[in-house]
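Budget justification note: compute hours in this period were largely spent on complex prediction jobs such as the one shown. Inputs:
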Amino acid sequence: MVIGIDIGCTTTKAVAAENSKIIGTVKTKAYDAITSASGALGKIIMENNIDISQIKKLIITGAGSVKIKRNIFGIETYKIDEISSIGLGGMYLAGREGIVITNIGTGTSIIEADKDKITHLGGTGIGGGTIVGLAKELIKSTTFDHILNLAEHGDITNVDLLIEDISDSGISFLNNKTTASNFGKMLDSANREDMAIGILNMVYQVIGMISVFAAKSRNTNNIVITGNGSKNPVGKKILEEISAIYNIGFEFPSNAEYATAIGAALSKEDLHKSVEKE
Ligand SMILES: Nc1ncnc2c1ncn2[C@@H]1O[C@H](COP(=O)(O)OP(=O)(O)OP(=O)(O)O)[C@@H](O)[C@H]1O
Ligand SMILES: [Mg+2]
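Corresponding output:
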């Protein structure tokens, strides 16, 4: 058995793989990378009745993996870079090769993944962290579910300047309900609910649009969405609106928040670096 651990900027995910099949997943959050990694390992062992002696190796990835400099609990521990992990995990979840993946985590990265080559196309610092950070200051809320709840009751027309505010008809292929300027209206009467949907709209529109351009530049009409940001129901709706305008499909595989950890767990040896040999 192999355990893949993805120590992200916000959450740590671990998956257990046996004969290249995923048999367990866990998510956790801790203050530092070492506690996160060892905690995730402990949790996956307990929740899946795994005997520690069954574990052949640990493969760690994600921003926090740089902090791990020794084998964890005496188990051979290797590192793999995050981009390769996302690419491999994305292909596993999509069930095919030759795809473009947008990983929405704390930040956002866009990756092209093919059988023999995984390429980092680019990304943006606009991501899940932007939602949480702006919500803390603008709507004094830090609980993710609360932010979503507020957004579901918000009115975007109080925050965003829409095309209908500046024109009697649509512009080019955009109808009059499309955002012309995120936060460009911002009425004094806008409440927390309105600002919550304004934040989500801005974040997912930016992510959606850079994904569209990335897909078009790679001649595909499909994007696989991974990361915890793929689980956001309000964000999903915003991406689907973009999908209808630009004729680009967004795919939300189940377990997409584990894509990076899955990619690490399923990766081949030639991509691994022993933590003890750095
Ligand atoms: N319960 C939740 N459901 C959906 N999204 C959530 C939930 N809780 C937090 N998030 C969002 O997910 C983001 C973190 O996503 P994820 O765990 O994929 O990132 P990460 O892997 O830690 O970061 P990165 O990949 O950028 O290093 C948070 O910033 C927040 O916006
Ligand atoms: Mg991540």
